[in-house]
Specification:
Blueprint (H helix, E strand, L loop, with lengths): L4 E2 L6 E2 L2 H14 L17 H4 L2 H6 L1 H17 L4 H8 L3 H7 L6 E5 L5 H14 L15 E3 L3 E7 L5 E3 L7 H10 L30 E4 L2
Parallel strand pairs: 2-3, 3-4
Antiparallel strand pairs: 1-2, 5-6, 5-7
Length: about 220
């Protein structure tokens, strides 16, 4: 594992891009969440980079929503592991001092969209909030995570500026039914003639203007 590097700002330390990438893919595997290009997942034969585009969503919003709904389900089912918990502690000044004594701040730049790092930090923050004896430098900073590829649980309107995190499972009845339909299949490549085309009217919609909504990673 490559060591952290110091940025031009002497008051900050961050993980370099390659290290951040390797760490985050490892976290996905440890949490039993299929990676975009990993084997064994129901959707692994589809190129996630081609699905995560505005063009793909405009062309087939049903398919894109089903793809990301499956990832939402897996992320909600996943358990936090020791790696998540250790990384979540680094934004705490007193803990960071033991790892990098001269660092003043720390940011986790994650390529993952699964919210597990955020969930870990949320739990740590909730625990700290109940301990009135903790000093400010003994509490985690909620702005320490940068999710560079978007947020899987954000629901965004395609027409207005509405954006909100929604942890509901399923987001709508049609997506829940589609997920149940695919449970017995191992790969979307073997679903010819069995795929479900969900009507736009049955996909998630914006609560403000009722337009079609999209995942926060498209």
């Amino acid at each position: 594992m490559a060591p952290p590097f110091r940025s031009s700002n002497s008051n900050s330390v961050r993980l370099n891009t390659s290290l951040s990438s390797r760490v985050q893919v490892s976290l996905l595997l440890q949490a039993s969440i299929p990676t975009f290009r990993g084997s064994g997942g129901m959707w692994w034969s589809l190129d996630a980079t081609s699905l995560a585009t505005p063009t793909a969503f405009q062309s087939n919003p049903s398919l894109v929503w089903q793809f990301y709904h499956h990832r939402r389900v897996k992320a909600l089912e996943a358990s936090l592991n020791l790696a998540h918990r250790l990384l979540a502690k680094l934004p705490i000044s007193t803990f960071l001092e033991t790892i990098a004594p001269t660092a003043k701040s720390y940011h986790l730049i994650t390529q993952n969209v699964d919210r597990l790092s955020v969930r870990t930090l949320d739990e740590l923050t909730d625990s700290a909030s109940t301990n009135s004896t903790l000093k400010p430098n003994e509490k985690p900073r909620m702005d320490s995570i940068i999710q560079m590829h978007g947020k899987l649980f954000d629901v965004k309107c395609t027409q207005c500026d509405y954006t909100k995190e929604d942890l509901s499972n399923p987001l709508c009845l049609a997506l829940g039914a589609a997920e149940s339909h695919f449970e017995t299949f191992h790969d979307v490549a073997g679903l010819e003639g069995k795929n479900i085309d969900i009507a736009i009217s049955e996909l998630p919609t914006c609560p403000q203007c009722r337009a079609l909504a999209r995942p926060g990673v498209v």
